[in-house]
Amino acid sequence: MRVTIFTIGTEGDVRPLVALGVGLARKGHIITIATDKSCADLVTAHGLNYRPLSGDFRSWMHEDPDLHKQGLSTPDMARKFRDRLRMLAEDWPRQGMAAAADADLLIGNGMVFLLADSIAERLDLPVAETQLVPTLPSRNPPLMPLPRWMYRLPGAANRLLGRLSRRLVWSVMAPAYQEVVRPGLGLDPYTAPGPLSGIQSRHLRLFGYSPTLVPPDPEWPDTVQVTGAWVLPASSEYKPSPELTTFLLSGPRPIYAGFGSMTNIDADALTGTMARVARETGRRFVLATGWGGLQSGEIADCPLIHVVQHVPHDWLLPLMAAAIHHGGAGTSIAAARAGIPSIIVPVFGDQPFWASRLQRLGAAPPPIRRSQMTEARLQKALRAVEDPAMQRAAAELGQRLRREDGVDTAIGTLEAWGLIRSNPASLDRQTTPGAGPSSH
């Protein structure tokens, strides 16, 4: 069968869907992933077809000065995100219809699930929703930015906040879908109060995170399946540089530090703090610069810090003593799977949520606000992750997560719902996987 997957965002929003696509391709299905061109190489490198879908958040994160200062936690930033989404959506009806040509099933992830849903309505195709975070109201705190004390509210209050969060998310997404996508596809707008108003649905929802980290809520309908994380096969072909190999072998396990796609951190200050802590304590660091991330200038002469640009998490993190990161879903799960504690400096979005979950599971100390990162706070957090009790908790959590096979569970659920057929007998419309970007 031919499956088209829609996803946009940072690499952390695309990589898990590539992992799901690789699993489906191994079952004989033909997979197309529609995403921003910045992730085209990630898609085609794993033998999947790529189609363009406007979603360039990388340049926005680099170019918007307000985003650098505030993240997406203020009403002003929510308005900026709403306007950005509406602008990107101008291309989506045309791009989406091209990507869905000849598809038997559409899968929509995150903020573009409703694009897949609308195209499925237009073409009379089945559709499934995927989310990499728990987006439905539950007894757990919602993903909206909250004061730290609100992470200790009772379940009923959290469900109320979760419904409010869904309403706020729809207010950001509505202009893109009601004014651009739905009319562009010749469809009526979604009826009030909008498609995010309740927890019931006719379509399957696959949540691609670990039920160990966030157990499913007992009030969720049976259309929701929490599968476990969608992780690409281990990077067996990765070869580290001689310099990285030498650094890893020359002393005790270092501490990883990286902030992925987050540009709205004070990179110079954070790098300087780590450099001073390294010199004062003798601790070793592997610093990942990323495409948002940290700066390497100040620590060029520090032998205790080794700088890398991109090393696969599944290869590097098991060799680390702990990980300092922003708390994105992908990095949080990677550190937890590696069995190492995390020190989380959340920036925006779902990151405080994952920081809270790892802390509750004993695999992280309290998060450090980026505006409050000091040498003293970092050293306190480093002492916490070196505590044997936290190291045991992180190691046990890693063992549990590594036993999960989220991709296999997701595929089994799609098969059980009759959305895909096991071992398709014929692929008469097969094309060459990895054919590269289309000309649409």
UniProtKB/TrEMBL annotation:
Domain of life, per lineage: Bacteria
InterPro entries referenced in this protein's UniProt entry, alphabetically: EryCIII-like_C, Glycosyltransferase_28, GlycoTrans_28_N, UDP_glucos_trans
Segments forming domain Glycosyltransferase family 28 N-terminal: 3-63
GO annotation (BP), single: carbohydrate metabolic process
UniProt domain Erythromycin biosynthesis protein CIII-like C-terminal: residue ranges: 305-398
GO MF terms, alphabetically ordered: hexosyltransferase activity; UDP-glycosyltransferase activity
Keywords, sorted A to Z: Transferase
PANTHER family, sorted: STEROL 3-BETA-GLUCOSYLTRANSFERASE, STEROL 3-BETA-GLUCOSYLTRANSFERASE UGT80A2
Name assigned to this protein: UDP:flavonoid glycosyltransferase YjiC (YdhE family)
